[in-house]
C-alpha cells in the first residue's frame, strides 16, 4: 500500500515539487515535468523522456548529463499530456531538435505524437524512438507492439550518448533505435500495487504465486506459477532472454552484454543481489561477458513486488554509450564534465511562463463569448457528470465524467485568467485547451486539448472570428482528433460527431450564415450524429439526454462532445454581440 | 515478506557474492565483507564500517572513495564477528591505522571492540566512533546510549573526508566524532518486516498505525498513533528534531543543515518526495538552510515500511565533508579523482588468505589432542543441543543450542583443515576459534571465538603446551571474556565457570601437576561452578545434566562451557601422549 500522501489527487504534483526541492542542483521544474538545471548547449539534440508517475527513478530521476535533457511527468500510471510534453521539450530544446524516447504505451504514444507534431509545426525538428523491450507483451515478429520497461535505460543512455557527442537528430535517432533493437527484458511479478488513497490494489497476484510477464501497470502476463527460489527465477529469466535474442543481430554481435536486474518496488536490494549472483553465473556459462551490470531499482511500479531482467546486446558503439558517464538524481556513473556538476559553472535554464500575446479589442470581445461557452460546457458537465460516468462504465472504466469535469473546470480557470490578462479569443481557447488536457487525463482529455488548440490556431487574437473561421477551426480539430485518436468515421467516436458538424459549418459559411446561426444548426446535427452514434440522445438541449445502458455501448466522448456543442449554441444564441 | 531467496541460512552469504559480482569495479570481497577495489594509499587512515545485513545500502553499498574503505557484513540483522571485522580491517588498512565507525548496537560494539583490541595488539592503531543519532532510543543526557540509524551516513562521510585529505587517526576520529555530535535522527514505522523463509514477521505495527521511534530492527518506539498524512508526518519529524538540537552546539552553529529523508524499504520514492516537499518547507520556515539533501533509501530495514529524518547541523568543516565527492556502489556524488574510477588506474587490493604458520612436530602432536577435544565438544553439543536450547528459552531466545552447534561444527571443520595442512596446536585452536565466532553468531559465539584465540596465543605452534601454558591461556581467555562480555564474577555467566577454573589450573601448574591431571581437576571445579551458577548440573560427565527450568534462570553459556571443559578432560584422560 501507499503509506504517505496528502490529497491523493495532488499526489503526483506534490511528488514533482518534492523531487525538485530535493534535487535543485540537478533539475529545474517546468510546466509538466523537469529539465536539466543546465541549459542544453546550442547545437545539441535534446533527449526528452517521460511517462506516468509511480515508476521512479523513471522518469524524472533520469534527467541529467549522460541521460535525458528533460522528462515529462504524468499522473500516477497515466501519460503526461501533449501540452506537458511540448513544454518540457520547448524548455529542453537546444536548437538541434528533440528526440522523444519513452516506453510503448498507447496513452504515451498519443500524447508524445501530438507534442511532436506541434514542435515540428513550430519548426523544431523532432523524432521518436518508442522503447519496446518487454518480450512477454508481443511476439518477436510483432516486437514493435511490445511494451517498454527497464530497457528504457539502455535506449535513453544511447540517445544521450549520441546527443552529447554532437550527433545530429537523425544520427541520435539511429543509435537510440539500434539500442532498442538490441534490448530485451523479461519480468515477473509477485504482488500488485495500491495507489495513494485507494481502498484496493490496482491489480493482484495470488500469494505464493508468480505472474510471468506481467507488465509494470499490472498488464496481464503470459502464465502463472508457484514462486520459485531466487536461483530458479534466475534460470527462468536468463533462459527466456537467451531465446529472445534479437533476430536482427548478426551472429558475431552480443558476446558482451549490458545487464539490468531491476526491482519493481517491494523486492529489496538483498534479494536482488542473491538473484543476481545466479544471473551472473548463468549468463557467464552462456558465454556472455557482462559489462557494467545494474542491480537495483531503475523502473519501478510503486510498491509492486517483482523483478525484470534486461539484456542489452552490445556492439562497440553501444558499449561506449553504456559505459559513458552520467550524472542525474538517481543514476550517476563515471566522471562527467566539471561544468555538469559544479553549480557555479552550470548555465541555468531560464524557465519562462508563456506570455499572453497582444490582442485586438474585437478579439477580446469575442473572447467573452468563448469564456461564456467554456463556462456553459463546464456547467453542462457538472450537471451530467454522473450520467457520463455511468455511460462510460459500460465500455470503459467509468471515469469519463470525472475526467471531463476536471478538464472543464481547469479550462474555465485558465480561460478566466487569460481573459483577465486581456487575452484575445484564440489565446483564451488555447489556454483553456492546454489546461483541459493537463488536468483531465486519459485519451479524451488529450483529444479535447488538441481540439481546442486547433480551433484556437484558426481563431487567433486579431479579428473577431467569422463563420468561415469557425468552420475551418472545427475542421482542423476534426483532423487532429482523427489523426491522433486513430479513429475513423463509423467507429462511434467523437469523429462521428465532429465530422458532420465540420461539414455543416463549412456549408453554412459558404452560404453566408452568421457564426451564430451556423453553429445553431451545427448543434442539431451534432445531436443527431451523437444520437446515431449512441442511439441514446433523442433531444439534446431540450431535455437532459436519456441515457440507457441497455442500448449498446455508446462512446461517452461522442455524447459529451455533442452536449458541449449544444451548450455553445445556447451561449451564442443568447449573445447580442455575435460577430456578423 | 522476502520473496527471493534460496536456502535462508545462506542468504547473507549469497547476498555478498551477488553484490560483489554486480560491483566488481567498486569492491573486492574479503573474508567477512568487502573493501574498496583500490588499495588504501599508504599513510591514509582506513575507515571501516559494518553491521548486520538487511540494511542495504548500509553497509557494503557505502564502500568507495568519499566513504568507507571497507565494510564488515554480518548475517541478517546480526553483527559481523570480530574475526570478520578484523580481516576486513586488515585488508583495508593502509599503514596509518583504522577508524571503526558503526551504529550503536550491543552485538556490533562487542565484536568491533574485539577486533580493535586485536588490531592494536598487532600494532595497527585503531579508534572507534559509535554512531548514536536516534533520538527516540535514549534521552539527550544519555545520548551515548542511543542507537545509530541513517545518521551513519553523516558520520561516515566526515570520517572519509578527514581520512582522504590525509588527517592522522586522531584527527579523523575527532571530525567523525564531531559529526556524530552534530547529527540527530527521528524515525517512524508503519509495518514490520519478514526475513527470508520466516513464516511470520520479526515484528509488526498494526495496520493504519504508526510506531513513533521504532528502531530499524523493530526495537520498541516511544508511542503509537494513527498514520498521519505525509505533511502531518513531516511536521512531527521536523518538530521532534528541532527540539533535539544538540545541546553542545553553540548558538551560531547549524543555520545550515544536511538533511536525510530515509526510506526503510516499503515506503517508495514518490512517497518520500511528497513528504520531503513538506520537510523542506518546514525546515526553511525554521530558518534553516538545507545543504545537499538526500531523499531515498540509505539505511533500510529490509521491507519494513517506515521513514526517518536526519538533521546534520553543519559547521564549515562538516559542510565541506558533507559536500565532498564520493563514488561507491550506492552513493555517488560530485567528481572523484580519475584513479578512483578508472579501472586501469586502480591499484587493486591483494586479498591474501591467511597462510598456515610453520609448526614443530611436538606442537602438531599436541594438535591431535586439540582436534580431538574440539570434536568431543562438538559431539557433546550435538547430544545436548535441544537441552541447551530449552535452557536458553527461559531467559533468552532459545537459540543457544543451535548457535553452539553451528559454531562447534564450523570450528571442527576449520581445525581439521588446519591439522591437514600441518598446523600446530595454537594455529588449530585459532582457526577453530575464528570459525566458531564466524558461524555461531550471537554473543556466545563471539565469546567462544575470543576464548579459543586467547588460549591459542599462549599455546603457540612451537612447544607442546605445558600445564603452565594451559593455565595462562585460560586466564587470558577469562580476561578477554570478562572484558568484552562486560560480565563480572557473580553475574552467573561464563565468567563464573572460567574464573575458578583459571585459578585451579594456575595452582595445579604451580604444584607441578601434568596438564592432564590439572585439567581433570579443573573440570570438576567447572562442573561445581556451573552447578553453583545454574544449580542444575549435579554430575557433569557422568550423566547428562539434569536441566530443569524450575530452578531459576541459569546462563546456558555457563552450562555449555562447563560441559565443554568436561569433554576436554575426557579426551585428555584417554590420551597416552599428553605432555607432562
From TrEMBL, chains A, B:
Q: Name one GO biological process term.
A: glycerol catabolic process
Q: Does the keyword Glycoprotein apply?
A: no
Segments forming domain DhaL:
368-570
Q: Which domain of life is it from?
A: Bacteria
Q: Which SUPFAM superfamilies match?
A: DAK1/DegV-like, DhaL-like
Every DhaK domain range: 7-331
| One GO CC annotation | cytosol
Against Pfam families, the record matches this protein to: Dak1 (PF02733), Dak2 (PF02734)
PROSITE patterns annotated for this entry?
DHAK, DHAL
Leader sequence range is: none
The residue stretches assigned to a coiled coil in this entry are none
Would the keyword ATP-binding turn up in this protein's UniProt record?
Answer: yes
Q: Which InterPro entries match?
A: DhaK_dom, DhaL_dom, DhaL_dom_sf, Dihydroxyacetone_Kinase
Q: Which UniProt keywords apply?
A: ATP-binding, Kinase, Nucleotide-binding, Transferase
Q: Which GO terms describe its molecular function?
A: ATP binding; glycerone kinase activity
Q: What name has this protein been given in UniProt?
A: Dihydroxyacetone kinase family protein
Amino acid at each position: 500500500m501507499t503509506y504517505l500522501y496528502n490529497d491523493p489527487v495532488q499526489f503526483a504534483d506534490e511528488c514533482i515539487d518534492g523531487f525538485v526541492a530535493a534535487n535543485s542542483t540537478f533539475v529545474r521544474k517546468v510546466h509538466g515535468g523537469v529539465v536539466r538545471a543546465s541549459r542544453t548547449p546550442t547545437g545539441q539534440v535534446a533527449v526528452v523522456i517521460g511517462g506516468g508517475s509511480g515508476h521512479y527513478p523513471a522518469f524524472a530521476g533520469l534527467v541529467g548529463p549522460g541521460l535525458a535533457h528533460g522528462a515529462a511527468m504524468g499522473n500516477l500510471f497515466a501519460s503526461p499530456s501533449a501540452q506537458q510534453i511540448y513544454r518540457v521539450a520547448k524548455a529542453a530544446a537546444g536548437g538541434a531538435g528533440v528526440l522523444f524516447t519513452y516506453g510503448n504505451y498507447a496513452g504515451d504514444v498519443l500524447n508524445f505524437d501530438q507534442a511532436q507534431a506541434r514542435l515540428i509545426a513550430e519548426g523544431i525538428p523532432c523524432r521518436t524512438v518508442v522503447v519496446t523491450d518487454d518480450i512477454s507483451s508481443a511476439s518477436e515478429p510483432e516486437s514493435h507492439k511490445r511494451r517498454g520497461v527497464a530497457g528504457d535505460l539502455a535506449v535513453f543512455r544511447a540517445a544521450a550518448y549520441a546527443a552529447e557527442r554532437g550527433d545530429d537528430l537523425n544520427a541520435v535517432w539511429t543509435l537510440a533505435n539500434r539500442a532498442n533493437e538490441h534490448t530485451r527484458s523479461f519480468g515477473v511479478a509477485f504482488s500488485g500495487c495500491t495507489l495513494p488513497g485507494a481502498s484496493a490494489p490496482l491489480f493482484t497476484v495470488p500469494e505464493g504465486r508468480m505472474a510471468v510477464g506481467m507488465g509494470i501497470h499490472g498488464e496481464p502476463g503470459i502464465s502463472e506459477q508457484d514462486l520459485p527460489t531466487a536461483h530458479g527465477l534466475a534460470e527462468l529469466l536468463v533462459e527466456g532472454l537467451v531465446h529472445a535474442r534479437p533476430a536482427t543481430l548478426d551472429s558475431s554481435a552480443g558476446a558482451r552484454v549490458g545487464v539490468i536486474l531491476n526491482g519493481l518496488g517491494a523486492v529489496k536490494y538483498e534479494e536482488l543481489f542473491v538473484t543476481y549472483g545466479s544471473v551472473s553465473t548463468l549468463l557467464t556459462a552462456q558465454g556472455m561477458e557482462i559489462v557494467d551490470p545494474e542491480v537495483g531499482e531503475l523502473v519501478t511500479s510503486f510498491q509492486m513486488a517483482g523483478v525484470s531482467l534486461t539484456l542489452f546486446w552490445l556492439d562497440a558503439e553501444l558499449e561506449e554509450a553504456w559505459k559513458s558517464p552520467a550524472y542525474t538524481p538517481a543514476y550517476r556513473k563515471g566522471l562527467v564534465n566539471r561544468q555538469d556538476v559544479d553549480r557555479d559553472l552550470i548555465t541555468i535554464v531560464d524557465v519562462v511562463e508563456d506570455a499572453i500575446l497582444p490582442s485586438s479589442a474585437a478579439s477580446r470581445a469575442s473572447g467573452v463569448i468563448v469564456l461564456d461557452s467554456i463556462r456553459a460546457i463546464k456547467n453542462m458537465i457538472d450537471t451530467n457528470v454522473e450520467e457520463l460516468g455511468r455511460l462510460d462504465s459500460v465500455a470503459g472504466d467509468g471515469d469519463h465524467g470525472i475526467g471531463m469535469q476536471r478538464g472543464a473546470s481547469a479550462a474555465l480557470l485558465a480561460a478566466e485568467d487569460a481573459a483577465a490578462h486581456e487575452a484575445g479569443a484564440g489565446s483564451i481557447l488555447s489556454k483553456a485547451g492546454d489546461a483541459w488536457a493537463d488536468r483531465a487525463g486519459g485519451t479524451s482529455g488529450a483529444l479535447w486539448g488538441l481540439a481546442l488548440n486547433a480551433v484556437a490556431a484558426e481563431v487567433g487574437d486579431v479579428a473577431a472570428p467569422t463563420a468561415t473561421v469557425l468552420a475551418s477551426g472545427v475542421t482542423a480539430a476534426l483532423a487532429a482528433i482523427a489523426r491522433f485518436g486513430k479513429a475513423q468515421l463509423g467507429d462511434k467516436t467523437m469523429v462521428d460527431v465532429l465530422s458532420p458538424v465540420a461539414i455543416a459549418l463549412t456549408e453554412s459559411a459558404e452560404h453566408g450564415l452568421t457564426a451564430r446561426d451556423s453553429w445553431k444548426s451545427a448543434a442539431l446535427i451534432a445531436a443527431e450524429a451523437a444520437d446515431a452514434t449512441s442511439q441514446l440522445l433523442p433531444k439534446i438541449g431540450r431535455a437532459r439526454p436519456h441515457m440507457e445502458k441497455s442500448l449498446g455501448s455508446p462512446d461517452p466522448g461522442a455524447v459529451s462532445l455533442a452536449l458541449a456543442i449544444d451548450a455553445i449554441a445556447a451561449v451564442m444564441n443568447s449573445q447580442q454581440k455575435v460577430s456578423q
